[in-house]
Amino acid sequence: MKRPTYTLPSIVKKVFRSGERSLPRMEICTRLEASEFIALTELDSMSLLDTVLKMEQTPVRVGSSDAIVEIAYQPHQLYDLAYRFLRETQTPKKVEQIVAELRRQTQFGWNQILRLLQLEKDPRFVQYQGDSRWFLAEWTLANDEVYAFCQKNGITQVTSRSLIHFLEHEVGIAADAAFLPGLDDRFQIDGDTLYIMVMNEESEVELFVHEVAAAAAADTIAPEVTEQTEHQEEQHQEQEEMKEDFTMNNIQNQHVLQEVQQLLEQAMSKLETRHIEMSQEVVAHFQQSNMQAIEVLMKEKHKNEQIALGIKQVLATSEQQ
C-alpha cells in the first residue's frame, strides 16, 4: 500500500517541535513510536535514529553526551531566504530552483550557495521518498482529503487543466497543502488525466486483505521449508558419496521428495487457513479505523514474498525429478 512517506532525516526533523534545539535520545524514540511516520518504514525507532545520525548530511548530531541529540542546523540568511521563497510561492522546489532564486537575491555564487545551503539540516524543510523537491515542514498533506472527497462524490478522473481549480474550489484544500498523487497508489496519472481509484468500503477492505494475506503465514511456513530444503541437500550429498549403491539412494531420494511435497502442501493449507484469519483481522482493523495496524502488517509483505518464491522453487525442483 503505497502512500507519501517522509525520508528518514525528515521523519527525525518532524519529531522536534518549534523552538526545540535538543532532546534526550529516549524522548526522540518515544515520539517516533507515537507518530504515524515510523509505521511506513522497516526500522524501529532506535535503528531509525542511529541510521540518520550516521548519514553524511544529517539533520541531527550527538550532543554533550550520547544520551542527548541536537539539531545540527546553524542559522544563516540563505536558509531564511529559501524558507521565504517556498512560503511565498506555496510550491515545493528542487534545490536548483532554490539556488537560482537565491543567486538572484544575493551576491553569492552558485557553488557558494550549494556549499552553504544544506537544507537537510534545517528542520523547516522536509522531503518525501521518491520526490527530489523540498517542502516546508509546516505544510499539510492533502492526499487523504482529496481521495475522501472523490470517493464521496463518485469522481473517478480529473484533467490536468482543471486540477488546480478542482483542488482549490471543489475539494477546498488549503493553499499550502501538498498533493502528491504520484506517490500514492490510490491515484494514477495517465497523460493529461488523473484517475482516482475510488472504492467503496467493502472493496477497500478486500484490497487490504489481498495485500496482507500473503504476508500472514511467514512464521508458519518458513521453518518447514528451511528444514526440508536442508534435508534434501543432505540426501543429495549422500547420493554423491555412495555412488555404488545408486539404486537404493535413488529410491530414498524419491521418498524424500515425496515428503517435501507433502509438507509443502501442508504449509499451503496453513497459509489458506491463515488467509481467512487475516481477512477477519483486517476487517476488524478497518472498522476501527486502525490504519497503523494495517500498515504494520504490510511490512511483512516483502519478506513473505521471498518465502513464497522459495516455495515455488522447491516445488519446481521436485516436479523435475
Uncertain spans, ≥5 residues at pLDDT below 50?
A: 246-251
Note the run of SSEs as H and E: HEHHEEHHHEEHEHEEHHHHH
Strand order of the largest sheet: 1-3-2
Broad structural category: mainly alpha
Tell me the domain tally: 4
In words, what does this structure look like?
The structure is a single chain. With 321 residues, this protein is mainly alpha-helical. The protein is 58% helix and 8% strand. Mean pLDDT is 81; it is low at 246-251.
In short:
This protein is mainly α and 321 residues long.
Describe this protein with a few key phrases.
single chain, 321 residues, mainly alpha, 4 domains, 3-stranded antiparallel β-sheet, 13 helices, 58% helix, 8% strand, extended
Q: What is the topology?
A:
Layout: H1 8-15, E1 22-24, H2 25-34, H3 45-53, E2 60-62, E3 68-71, H4 77-89, H5 95-105, H6 110-116, E4 125-126, E5 135-136, H7 143-153, E6 157-159, H8 163-171, E7 187-190, E8 193-196, H9 201-213, H10 218-241, H11 246-287, H12 291-298, H13 300-320
Antiparallel strand pairs: 1-3, 2-3, 4-5, 6-8, 7-8
Helix pairs in contact: 4-5, 9-11, 10-11, 10-13
